Amino acid sequence: MTQVQRPPQPPFPVGGQRPSLRKAFVAFRNPYFRWHWASTLASFSGMQMQMIALGILGWELSGSFAVVGVLQAAFAIPMALLSLPGGAAVDRVEKRRLVVLSQGAFGALAAVIGFLVQVDLITVVLLFVGGVVQGSLFSVNGPARMALLTEIVEPEELTAAISLQNMAMNGTRVVAPAVAGLMIAFVSIEGTYYVTAALYAFTVFAMLHVPRTSSHIGRARTALLADMGAGLGYVFRDRTLRSLMLSGLVIALFIFPYQVMLPGFADGLGHAELFGAMVAVSGIGGLLGSLGVAALSEHPRKPYLQFLLGLTAGGALVVLGALPAVMGPPGAFLALAVVGAGATAYMTLNQTMLMTEAVPDYRGRVMSISMLTFSAMPLMALPLGILADQIGGEGAFITQGIIAAAVILLIAMANRRHTFQRQEGQRPEGQRGEGQRQEGGRTA
């Protein structure tokens, strides 16, 4: 296939390519995507509610901040260990079945924990084991869900589809914790777990309306370790994929950990009670960022747009550290909205480009490597927390923002052609690395 060379174009779409809210929701025309989106909304609502219930339950059982932290980390540990083999497994099997089975297991686990709470048999150890099981399941569920998305939407719908998925995830960050808090206060903790189990059951029901995938059919069978090595080698050899992975890692390590430090930051401002509102404002910013990227789904310069969004997120984190000294909490809310919007929009574009650049045979492994960077985020919270203890939350935010912006700039300059030139569709066949290119969109 020959790539047509076009003259340089302006950095923003023109004519029929203007940003449009209509384009933002184009993926909803696809009935398979609507069911996939509904399942994502239900699944992440249940996950957010369960995290709130877990924190309160862990505190009631132990009275220890450290124990609560360990219970929260139990989810991330298996993700760090199992993401790579999980991604390799995803590329070998039918993806819808994998999502259905893992979501069913999520629901069963939530129901069991709810029952153990109800009969007063729950312990910290059992909660930790449950977190490890959940993290293990998510190491295959996450890559399978994202790879499945690429097989049920048309290529031109993919950016809007991923943006709408991220809107659903960010929406749950705003609504689900509040619902969980009300459930725990006026019903019970076990009732919250039962509602979570029901949400997971709906997720299974929704996914059964999505067609089976076929990218695994006819694929040569090799050892799992060989598949993992091939996936790592594929990403390492491909300059664009390597750049996108590093770009995502920067945001995961130096931007998103700000969420962990918000309780202490709010307390340092003298308004500890504003922590929940800060999380909500950040989530609303994420919603708006996802909607903005969906409206720009046909933007011809996505790498350049991602670069600008990365600088925006880093700069907003610097402002978050500096502005409250002048404006107080209103300054913090303003900066948090921009950080949430910039970081979420950045990662939405990053995931979109990873999916479109990777060949179908490798998409599960590519997404598992991307998820691996996010499992490192809780680990980064420790050194950043130590830094914040020494220089304050404001100083830590300023340091994080400067480092993130500087590294994003270095990555962009190291791959200038990909970052700053107009992108016309996917790369030519000969530049796409290993595997076969899948033509078309949906698999019936």
What does this 3D model show about the protein?
The protein has helices spanning 21-24, 31-62, 65-73, 76-90, 95-118, 124-152, 158-186, 189-207, 224-237, 239-254, 262-268, 275-295, 302-322, 324-327, 329-357, 363-375, 377-414, 416-420. The chain has 444 residues and is mainly α. It has 2 domains: 20-213, MFS general substrate transporter like domains (Growth Hormone, Chain: A); 233-427, Up-down Bundle (Growth Hormone, Chain: A). The protein is globular and about 55 Å long. The two termini are 26 Å apart. Mean pLDDT is 77; it is low at 1-16 and 424-444.
Main attributes?
Growth Hormone, Chain: A, 444 residues
Entry summary:
The chain has 444 residues and is mainly alpha-helical. 74% of the residues lie in helices and 0% in strands. The longest helix is centred in the last third of the chain and has 38 residues, at 377-414.
SSE topology sketch:
Blueprint (H helix, E strand, L loop, with lengths): L20 H4 L6 H32 L2 H9 L2 H15 L4 H24 L5 H29 L5 H29 L2 H19 L16 H14 L1 H16 L7 H7 L6 H21 L6 H21 L1 H4 L1 H29 L5 H13 L1 H38 L1 H5 L24
Helix pairs in contact: 2-3, 2-6, 2-7, 2-8, 3-6, 4-6, 4-9, 4-16, 5-6, 5-8, 6-16, 7-8, 7-12, 7-15, 10-15, 10-16, 10-17, 12-15, 13-15, 13-17
